[in-house]
UniProtKB/TrEMBL annotation:
It comes from Urochloa decumbens. Coiled coil: none annotated. Keywords: Signal. Pfam families: Ferritin_2. The keyword Signal applies. Residues 1-28 form the signal peptide. It comes from the Eukaryota. PANTHER family: DESICCATION-LIKE PROTEIN (PTHR31694), PROTEIN PCC13-62, PUTATIVE, EXPRESSED-RELATED (PTHR31694:SF25). This is Desiccation-related protein PCC13-62. The keyword Signal applies.
Amino acid sequence: MASSSSSSSHAAAPFFLLLLLLPQLCSSGVTLPDQFVDPTYPPERPAEAAALFSNYGGPSVCKPPPPYIPVAVFPHDVDPVQFALNLEFTEAEFFLHGAYGEGLDQIAPWLALGGPPPVGAREANLDEETRRVVKEFALQEIGHIRAITRTVGGIPRPLINLSADNFAWVMDMAFGYPLNPPFDPYANSLNFLLACYLIPYLGINGYVGTNSMIDGYKTKELVAGLLGVEAGQDAVIRALLFERRGEAVAPYGMTVAEFTDRVSELRNRLGRCGAKDEGLTVPRELGAEGAICTNVLSADRDSLSYARTPAQLLGILYLTGDERVPGGFFPEGANGRIAWSFLGANKSPGN
């Protein structure tokens, strides 16, 4: 991990950009272009109904108790939380393009801090119910990027490879041979859900690992909130796939459960630190309390989420098993001081 005593010039850039963008970042949300607004939403609640949800309990009920350590963000909180933006950018662009055919540059370009647009992302051929789920996830990721940037400052969006070729490469690695035809995440709803299985789960691992590295009360509040929604997203994806676990993925003849097992095994190999990932079915001894083979949620023997370090996550996302060798989803490497520290002179905030 990069030291928090890294050069002040590295630290100044994100916070300077944050100050420039403060009016946009401190708003409660964004004004969505028409194509991102759901025209089927229900009518507004009448005023008397809304009053039922008001803060009638007063400050003693509605406000949390004061923190034991009254420091909102410690300097050492910044790098690990900023590192999470690499995954949040990846999820945002994949979900946005998959559901809408447009990305962060069309809805909230200032959040990218000048980083390049993703490569190969496009609209997926989704059924209506899957599209609604993915749209919600996409818009949630915008909020995640905004909240992180507002709390600890931002980093430029890295170059992200979301091409069908890259996802095909992942599946080929998972199975150990080239699938024919190459896997296309954008071809249909099932393929897109299988591709979604690749990324949000790593966000859970990352936030669980980050929690022990931070101390500020605002930072902990942020990470807890992020972890809650990322875990929810992953649970929805896994549940949708679990319903179809015995279904053959056309035209490959392997079931949905086999795909998830192979992807989880790949992530464990690339992560290099033991089994921290499980597919939709497991041997009974690995199931909850050693009593069940179904595995809707991936968890350890105490049914707690697994943690991964930034180095482990980068090895998986680079598809190289080495945090020092970029590739895969980040062909030029991830951004932020932690990711840059592994790349040495090959990458820095100034190049």
